[in-house]
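Q&A log
Question type: sequence-to-structure
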Amino acid sequence: MDMETAADILQMIRTTKLTDLRDDLIEHAVRYARMRVDYHLATTEQQSHLGADRTMCHNAFIASCDILARNMDKHGEDATWRQQMGTDRKVIGDFACWLHALLGIEAR
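Response status: OK
Response body:
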């Protein structure tokens, strides 16, 4: 996933009126992105301790994407961003990192 695609998906997510679910997705994305960096910077021994938590964070983020998309669809909102994101775990994780980066740049 590239930055432009991630920015497009983020814009579609921002259109929802389901703000609690949207905020939950963003929270999970930021948490997973941080965990991904922590894992990358960790020693091999530290990685063995972080692995399960990293997977749980990733699963929670993917679930939050699915929940938001399903509910947007139920409410007649455009949820095509979820299909655009696809099902590859690495790509979905990349989106979490792009979302984190885009929000960080916006916050300056």
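Response note: The mean pLDDT is 97.
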